[in-house]
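[step 3/7] fold_predict: job queued, chain A
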Amino acid sequence: MTLLHNPGFPRIGAHRELKYALEAYWRGACDESELEQTGAALRARHWRAQAAKGLDLLPVGDFSWYDTVLDLSTALGAIPRRFGWSGGEVDLDTYFRLARGRAANGEAVAACEMTKWFDTNYHYIVPEVQTGQTFALSSHRLYRQIEEAQRLGYKVKPTLPGPLTWLWLAKSPQPGFDKLSLLEALLPVYGELLQGIASLGVEWVQIDEPILALDLPPQWQQAFEQSYHRLGTPGLSKLLAVYFGPLQENLGVACTLPVEGLHLDAVRGGDELSRILDRLSPYQVLSLGIVDGRNVWRTDLERALQRLEEPSRRLGERLWLAPSCSLQHVPVDLAAERQLDAGLRTWLAFALQKLEELALLRQALDSGRDSVRGELQAAREAMAIRRATWQRPTGDGASNRVPDGRLTERTSPYPQRAQAQRQALKLPPFPTTTIGSFPQTAQIRRARRDFHQGTLDEAAYRETVQAEIRRAIQAQEALGLDLLVHGEAERNDMVEYFGEQLAGFAVTRNGWVQSYGSRCVKPPILYGDVRRPKAMTLEWSRYAQSLTDKPVKGMLTGPVTLLNWSFVRDDQPRADTCLQIALALRQEVLDLEAAGITAIQIDEAALREGLPLRRTQWQNYLDWAVRAFRATAAGVADSTQIHTHMCYSEFSDIMAAIAAMDADVITIETSRSDMQLLETFQRFAYPNQIGPGVYDIHSPNIPETAHMVALLEKAAHVIPAERLWVNPDCGLKTRAWPEVEAALGNMVRAAHILRTHKAGAQADPGASGK
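[step 4/7] structure written:
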């Protein structure tokens, strides 16, 4: 019988139960035992649901209080010294300090860096390593969860990041540090972790090594061979899981490692299946990730069965079926989305439905297609309707709305635009601004919910939103910020808000997906051609600008981010879909400018995460992504200042593309990395204005003025003062007003100190050390 398993299940709960429990614990509204009870209840519910769908091995270790990479870091005892950890079992508060800041004595410290997990919108906590790094088994939480599942009668398959992937993702403050030099110290402790799993009677463990889908240097390929020969654990079979892409030149490495099973992403790497079958050892299991764990479209079961015929014939019971990767990247249950169009619902599958698809595929393989004839016919009909809908001409003429020669070019180059913008905006040196959102109060969330449910009329809702906008404008003026924002009180999410208003998108009610920690998002479903039926932000921006003499930024989410943070149709090139979004947004940009908005921010937080994992494919993606951004922004006058924002990604190797976007101002996240990214901007000689984030909005710590002054002085050695902005790392919607006002007050004071220094240096050039 073909075995079914799952690389991972959404941990947050169908109704975000984990989010609410975590936030209650962080604000002191519940204690650790109550938090643990919530976690145990969620795990039990998720195991029960997966078992009911027919899984033979249930994942353990996919549940995490914050992040599974952080879980492994704490299990290995890789705790940076600044957190004041003295050894022993890593407790829950120490764990959260790494993710959110603060030391054991209560003092504020920098949280560990956070960045995107490969090409997804999930964020992991970056491990920190250095010369002389030691490791010791320091968390037994995984063991307790294994025993918990076993007591409930389940056969489990623990899952954890592999040692090479963990080390690849780690960072060191020491330039040029050879992370592979730590393998000698790391492998014995990782092996001890595996031995502990084996001692609990576990037969299989899943070890995730997604870096095998990357371009790996030869020394890292060799490290795989050396490492896995040292990780043999009697009685414990290892399933090496590779996902997010094909193996390519790493195929030989993966197929010759001393592991008992190999998991292949057959959605993104299915073309390698025949080669892998030829290379697989006769004792090894092959797990095929045949159902897409990254998107919400229903599986083409006929095509999947055709692909499974040869491996089923050749492998028999050594063939396992699974989703392509952890299902944490999709919502839990489509059954909760009764409000969606009935036709569209037949196209979709969320996590539980994907497990049902696996069960159907197994039954078809093991008992013959006739045993699931009705289900296959229903799937064929839904697939035919979906394809016919997508192939129908729209007559929209989206690609011809703007003459191609004027599509992506601003009227003048940056130096001339900068001069026009100085005259129009009249901002001081080191201008201060924020990234867009302000705290989402309980009142505004309730009003938005009631309005959507029809229990609050439009006039009352509009007044509530306007009251929040007034509060945001008044607070910014009182703090002394220079370029204001309206605060985005009307927005539930920076992507979902636009998905609700653009034709071609559908939004869910409970389609939550974890982004990081307790932060969850509901990615829209991009199912058809995109157009803008009406203005989306104009009313709120115009109202905000009417309240102040200071300039107010218009706030838009960019086309690449809307694409990458949605579940996207897969029948046409993503480049074509992205350009459709860009042309719809371009209309909004021009409407904002016509209404007197002289600065417009077009966020592209997801530019990097859409980058293909293989470098040979980078340039094609960057070309169309940059073109889409420029198409959105290029229609405005020289005097209109275009901003963009990027965060929590690695940008050092795509600087040419960032410069080619030609935004007048870019704001970036740099505080967790202590401004390290600025060295990249310096080497590249980035030509336009930059706002390096001076405080980490994802930490509850209130940054001190002196700390921000130090960061800005470091930045001023890299960026000329006339091109340097002062701003937070990211939007402020997840923070509370008191901490926001305190932090922004310190930020404004830091900018004033720099202005004073600059004025003094200009008055007495000899006094300046520069």
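[step 5/7] annotate
The radius of gyration is 26 Å.
DSSP finds 26 helices and 20 strands in the chain.
exit 0
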